[in-house]
Structures are given as C-alpha cells and as structure tokens.
Amino acid sequence: MGKLTSMLGLLLTHPLEFRTLVHFYLYHETKRDITAQQEHPTSGWDRASMRRCWEFLDLTSRSFAAVIKELDGDLARTICMYYLILRGLDTIEDDMTIPDEKKQPILRQFHNLTVTPGWNFTENGPDEKDRHLLLEYHTIVEEVNRLPPQYKTVILDICQKMENGMADYAHKAATNGTVYLETIADYDLYCHYVAGLVGEGLTRIWSASGKEASFLCDQLELANSMGLLLQKTNIIRDFREDVEERRFFWPREIWAKYGFDEMKDMYEKGDVEHATWIQSGMVLDALRHVCDSLDYLRLLKNQSVFVFCAVPVSMAMATLALCFMNPEMFQRNIKIRKAEAAHLIMRSTNTREVALIFREYARKIHHKAKPHDPNFLKISVMCCKIEQWCEQNFPSFVILGEKGPIYDSADKRTAIFRAEEKRAAERLAADPRNAPLPQDLFPWELATYVVGAMLLMLGLTALIVWVMLKFIPQA
Fold first, then answer.
1. CA 66 from chain center: how many Å?
2. Considering the entire predicted model, what is its pTM?
3. Which residue, 102, 225, 265, 318, could crosslink 289 as a Cys pair with Cβ 3.0–4.6 Å?
4. Neighbours of 143 (CB within 10 A)
C-alpha cells in the first residue's frame, strides 16, 4: 500500500519520473534467475550454505546484489563471495567498539581466517549493522573453500593486501583518536586500499574466467582509477554522516586553506561559500578518474561484466553532479532520485551510451560552476577533457541509424569527412593495380592461357620420362 501511495504521489508531483519508473518495471527484465534449476550448477542455489550467502548479499547491499546476480556463469557466485568477504573485513575495521589490540591481529590474519573451517566473529558492537554476517561467517568460509583455485587465489591475495592497509589506518585512528588525511596523496592511498584493490581483484577475476581478454588483468591502473572514482563519490556524498561518526576522509590539503580548523566547521560556521569551494575541489579530484574509467569500460567485451561495471560509475557521475555546488549536502545525506537511477540502469548498456551519460553530467557540472570559485578553471578543463574523450571516441556528427551511420550535414566535420572520402576513392581509382579487367578476356584469352598451360605440363612430363628412359639403366 505504501508503495502504491508513493507512486501516486510521484504521478502528481513528478509525472515524467513516474513514466520512467513504469517503463523500468514493465520493460527491464532480469537477465538471469539464479534460483532456476538450470542455474544451480553455477549459482549454488541447491546448497543451503550458498542460499544463505545470497541472503547475506541482499541484506548488505541491495543495489550491488541486483547486478551481481546477473553476471554470467560462475562469476555471479564468485563475486558474491568476494563482496561478502570484503564486507566482513570492512565491518571489523569500522567497528570502533573493538579495542585496537584485539582488532589488529584479526585484520592482519583475515585472509587466513576466511579459509579456516568453522571460524566466525561474535564480538561486534550491538549497533554494527552487518554484525550478522560475521556471526555466521563459517557459512561464507564453507563456500569460499568451494571456489575454483583461480578465483580463490585472487580473492585471498586482494584480501591480504586490503587488510594490511585497513589495519594501518585503524591503528592510526586508535592511537590518535581520529583519522585525518593530510594530503591528496594520502587520500588516494586510502581509497586504493578500500576500493582500488577491489577493482584490481575484479579485473583479475574477469581475466581468470576467460570471459574477458587475458591482457585485461594487466590494466591495473585503469581498474584502480575506476575504484577510486566510486569510493571518492561515496566519500563526498556521505560527508555529514562520516563527520558525525568522526570519520574524516576529506584531505586537509583541500579544506584547511579556507580557514576551517575542523571538518564540522563547514556546516557549523555557516560559511556556505567557502564550504562549496571545498566541495568543488573534492569533485574536481574525483573527476580526474573519469576518463580512465571510460577507457576501462572500452576494454570489456562480456555484456554482463560491462553492465556490472557501467551502472555504478554512471550513478557515481550523476551523484557528483548532484553534490557539486549543493549546500544541502552539508546538512544531510543526499541521493539521486529513484527514477534517475532506473533511467541510468536502462541506458548503461554500451560504451557509447555511458560516454554520453558522462558528457551530460559533465555539462551539468560545468553549468553549475561559478567563476569566482578558485577551482572554476580546473573544473572547466576537466569537463572539457570528458567532452574531448567522447568526441575522440564517438564523434557527435556520426549518428547511428538502422541502416548504418548517418552523418550530420549541419556539422562542418561532415564536409571534411566527405572530402577525405572522395580523395581516398580517387587515389584508389588511380592505382593501376585496381584497374578493371577487360570485358573480352573471357572466354578466348582465358582458354588460350589454359591450353598453353596444359601443353607446357605435357611437354615437361614427356621430357622427364625421356630422361628417365635414356639415362637410368634397366635392371
């Protein structure tokens, strides 16, 4: 009843969004049903332990659960386990009720505990939202040990790298009472540990599955950039929540120069102008990962893998545009509207469409930018780089039609393309190797060539026989 009431309210207040949601519910079909009988060998739904893992996935992240379940073959089960392992690790690292002397050995040995039969963790605080995952972690251990070796090795390697980075930051928070990141380089390193490594692991799993090219696992810089884009977007959006829980991820290098002593001063002092300048600096820093993310998407060939990667980054770009120069972000946690998210899911099906989405939101960011903002010029340059990437890879004067590409006659580049096309045709016609064969070549001249070739062969055969009879003595 509540959902029906909200939809009716949406019809009255935002009719276009209502139409988008109706279109999504009617026409967006789930690509895969992991509960179906034919999917059991790869999804593991026939096992009680794996069914429980799928339930954990739904409980911890509904947004990621939907795209994970649509991955092809055993990738869905593998990424489900990968996500739950890292979620368990993150839950221990985030829990401030666990003493540091207790937390450190658990974090640094988490990759070993993950494959230790029967292990679970019962000492999370009562308010930790994902504590149920660790209470039944032995279920996850059971399924991890069933993964193929090529996946299990990657997951445990990434887990080991991530746990050490998290342990370092947790120890710093415990000894100093809080964590302040001083420089953008520190910020990048933190995001690498908590998100860039996730991208690295995913990339190695894509290659190990054979569903993506083997060279993809070498593109770790691009994978890291995509992870950083997602993580930095979340850090920007969750500013108020993080500050209230004493998690300070915005680097001091960006905000301290505007006269703030603490991050909470950005909303307590009422200095909205300087706060939005800091906000634009954070968005600017996130935007430098956009072109790398688009380059990464261009390398993907499996549709389910592409959608898994494309949907989150499209939503990240929309979130950056929402947060940019938006003072409300300092007062509450803001999110893109449900209809906009549904629209992005339906559109994020190929690299060209995702590039157009990025360009649209880059233009919105540039439109909201203010000339008196110290970051105005850099924001403009970054938005232009996104435009440049789109034009270089998907020129706007080329329009895809049902019968092939159509060229926009109003665009000057079409005239240049036509002229180049004409010159190429003229060069091809002037090449004597491309001259057409005379019409009277067949059948008389061709017959002459064939008869001549046959006579030559007969003559050579007779010569060989004569030589053999003449010079080889009889037995």
1. 15
2. 0.84
3. 225
4. 18
Give dist(CA 345, CA 63) in Å, integer.
11
Q: Determine the pLDDT at residue 437.
A: 59
Instruction: State how far the Cα of 221 lies from the Cα of 133, in Å rounded to an integer.
Output: 31
Tokens of 157: 């390697």
- For the stretch 369-403, pLDDT in tens is 999 999 999 999 999 999 999 999 998 888 877 77
Q: Which two tokens stand for residue 84?
A: 């739950």
How far is it, in rounded angstroms, from Cα 278 to Cα 229? 18
HSE on the CB side for 373, CA within 13 Å?
26
- Determine the pLDDT at residue 475: 44
Query: Phi/psi at 400 (nearest 5 deg)?
Result: -80, 120
Please report the pLDDT score of residue 2 as a whole number. Answer: 61
Please answer whether residues 399 and 305 qualify as being in contact, where contact means their C-beta atoms are separated by less than 8 angstroms.
no
Residues assigned a catalytic role: 190, 237, 247, 308
Give me the residues of the chain with pLDDT under 50, please.
475
Q: What are φ and ψ of residue 245, in 5° steps? A: -95, 15
Q: What is the pLDDT of residue 3?
A: 63
**SS3 track for the chain:** CHHHHHHHHHHHHCHHHHHHHHHHHHHCCCCCCCCCHHHHHHHCCCCHHHHHHHHHHHHHCHHHHHHHHCCCCCHHHHHHHHHHHHHHHHHHHHCCCCCHHHHHHHHHCHHHHCCCCCCCCCCCCCCCCCHHHHHCHHHHHHHHCCCCHHHHHHHHHHHHHHHHHHHHHHHHHHHHCCCECCCHHHHHHHHHHHHHHHHHHHHHHHHHHCCCCHHHHHCHHHHHHHHHHHHHHHHHHCHHHHHHCCCECCCHHHHHHHCCCCCCHHHHCCCHHHHHHHHHHHHHHHHCCHHHHHHHHHCCCCHHHHHHHHHHHHHHHHHHHHHCCCHHHHCCCCCCCHHHHHHHHHHCCCHHHHHHHHHHHHHHHHHHCCCCCCCHHHHHHHHHHHHHHHHHHCCCCEEEECCEEEECCCCHHHHHHHHHHHHHHHHHHHCHHHCCCCHHHCCHHHHHHHHHHHHHHHHHHHHHHHHHHHHCCCC
Q: CA-to-CA distance for 212 and 305, rounded, in angstroms?
A: 9
Q: pLDDT per residue over 220-277, tens digit each?
A: 999 999 999 999 999 999 999 888 888 889 999 999 888 888 888 898 888 899 999 9
CB 198 within 8 A of CB 224: no
The pLDDT value recorded for residue 86 is 93
Residue with the two structure tokens 């505007």: 258
